[in-house]
Prior knowledge:
Helix content of chain A: 25-40%
Oligomer: homotrimer
Order of helices and strands of chain A: EEEHEHEE
Strand order of the largest sheet of chain A: 1-2-3-6-4-5
Amino acid sequence: MRPVHTEAAPSHTGPVPQAVVSGGWIFVSALFGTHPESGRRPDDARTEADQLFTNLTEILAAAGASPDHVVRAGIFMRDLRRDRPVFNEAWVDYFGSHRPARSAVEVSDFGRADDDCRFMLEVVAHKP
Amino acid sequence: MRPVHTEAAPSHTGPVPQAVVSGGWIFVSALFGTHPESGRRPDDARTEADQLFTNLTEILAAAGASPDHVVRAGIFMRDLRRDRPVFNEAWVDYFGSHRPARSAVEVSDFGRADDDCRFMLEVVAHKP
Amino acid sequence: MRPVHTEAAPSHTGPVPQAVVSGGWIFVSALFGTHPESGRRPDDARTEADQLFTNLTEILAAAGASPDHVVRAGIFMRDLRRDRPVFNEAWVDYFGSHRPARSAVEVSDFGRADDDCRFMLEVVAHKP
């Protein structure tokens, strides 16, 4: 197993790597739509989702992979009914015709309560 | 990676495949107990759980696998104390002596708020 | 796939193995900080986290693996802001410089409501 790190995506404050790679599988830690330089979350929901996917692209690239290698995503939102439509728009723009397996649940908090993030994503990618 | 689709199980409304297969691993998207033809959730909890597992069987079959290949399940319920006993009964009837790893959490919503689904399941199967 | 069982870690009450192994991958079921003999949760948050990791070590050992093989963890807490700092302290003491991918969410219940557990962990390990 090797950890993945890139300055082009936000780092975690706790003992958390951006991702790890083991045997062709890439496990990405909790992804947020924060900007890697400012560390801030965009006010706009769509911009937040786009930034989250930009962060994912950078982390996958640092692991030698691309969005087409994503096989599964766990999606967590604070308000599923309000924010899922715009998240799905950003998803389709990002993945194009690629369709990872996914599930989505609503949770009260995912560790970014202070800046009121709308989206958290957990990703598994496979590059054999 | 290839997507899995069967008419014998419900389709997702958003950009979500029923499952994907990559390198012998099958990732099943969020499973619900809705009926593939009516698109409706059974009123009875046990019937809902049974329908969910029927949907799983169909999706696994479309991926060339069976319930015995399931290695891990994430279980999400709206009311864990109320609905877990009946879910576990359906689980044992479905899996028999096969015992996938699993965890269960209670969440306020998993994207089917309108029809008040009790159960959502996320599954990983392995057919080397 | 083979199930993993050890008397040195708590057993589940429902139809749930402690873990399963398939093709070098180890999927650990919901882990709690309960003591394997008393079945009780420690009153102190740090002791609860430490017991959870002790349980993990025992289950991984029964699967022929060790903490260094953990690649991914899903963390569930009842009160993320209150309990995450102490959990992270226990995490760092346990894993040392090893850094699995992880995410953490807050949920209202994870099936141990009666004894008011603070932490639940879900783990994937890889020993090729």
